[in-house]
Amino acid sequence: MEFDSIKNVAMIGAGTMGAGMSWCFAQAGYHVCLYDVSQEQLEKANNRIDQIQKLFVEEKLITEKDASLARARVSFSSVLEESLHEVQYVLEAVPERLDLKQQLFQKFEACCPKDAILATNTSGLRITDIASACQIPGRVGGMHWANPAEIVPLVEVIRGEQTSDHTIDLIYQVTEKLGKMPVVVNKDILGFVSNRLQYAVLREALYLVETGVVSAQDVDRTLKCGVGFRYPWLGPLETADLGGLDVFHSISQYLFKELSTMSGPPESFSRLIREGKLGIKTGQGFYDHRGVSRDEILRRRDRYFIRQLKLIREIQSS
Ligand SMILES: NC(=O)c1ccc[n+]([C@@H]2O[C@H](COP(=O)([O-])OP(=O)(O)OC[C@H]3O[C@@H](n4cnc5c(N)ncnc54)[C@H](O)[C@@H]3O)[C@@H](O)[C@H]2O)c1
Question: I need a labelling partner for 298 at 20 to 30 A (CA). Which of 58, 129, 191, 308 fits?
Answer without folding.
Answer: 191
